[in-house]
Please model this.
Amino acid sequence: MEKKTAVELLIQEVDKIPYLKTLPYDNDEFRLWLKNVENIINKGLEAEDKNKYREASQFLTYIRYEEDLKQQDYINEIVRYEIALKSIVQRYEILGISQKPTEKTDRQRAIELLEQKSNEAVYVASLPYNNNEYLPWRRNIEDILEATFGVTSTEYKRVADSRVDIITTGTQESIQQGYKAVVHRIQQEVGSIIQKYQILELDTNHETHVTDKQRGKMDRQIDELLVKSSNSNWKDINTEYGVTKRSFGKRINFVKDSFKRTVIYRDVEQAFILASSGFSKPAVILAGGVIEELLRLYLEHKQIKPISNNFDGYIQTCEQKGVLKAGISRLSDSARHFRNLVHLSKEETKSHTISKSTAKGAVAAIFTIANDF
Model:
């Protein structure tokens, strides 16, 4: 059986699951459904796929339903199949039918897929902790990282290490909070991976002579820079800019979402590290992105509707409403560089270079605007 056919048949079987859930536990249709699924998996999928989703094959081999099985147990078992089969189907939908397990996914395509998965995190985190969508979502991310970088890569390990079992003891509220924290932690690691490769592309896409060896060296340099401890980063920030993490946090106390605060802290640190290490272009873009998000959240906090939902719109709104006067007046130079770089970041040109001092100025602009909040 061709893989494409197998996946199409699996999709059809998954579509039958809502109906199967409506049947009594001692029905005959469920056993026929199991047999069909087993045949499709055995005849149409790669051995590596069956091993990766061993939960599904174990259920097919070892689960036996007795007459006294309760209805809820029956539903729970169907849900386990549903999670495993959706993971298999979505793996092929994401990576493509033709790709073999040993083939590498193009990095640019992988980053696009990871961005999709990262964007889905908001929805996944909003679900009840006992939902059926978290596991397929998490496994899809792992699939992309494995297919692109390999299971021994730093990228794969970062997400695998951030994956912890969701605590199912305590109050429902505490379990739900723990579940959301796990989803956000995975999203944060995925965001860091995306950011790293965007930085790498920004700093090399205009260099037509960059070899794979040189790119690999830069890849390792960025890795080493970005894994520096947070406390050490903020100590250096305080030395250069006179700003502590605590004082900065007080200035942005209108950012109530703990995950958003964590991401802002991270991006400030990384913009500082990149600027200090000579990665000027990505540092300016990252710093500009932090300022843009802070302005958006501040206007939202003040219940002020922006002229337009972009960097220029937020600045113009602040100017018209007379808020953040001192900070906004000092943003013009950094804003110009940020706008230019966002517009030119995909062009292969050397004509728009950014100095280290400009990059450091962009980082300083974050703290300038924060002082007015």
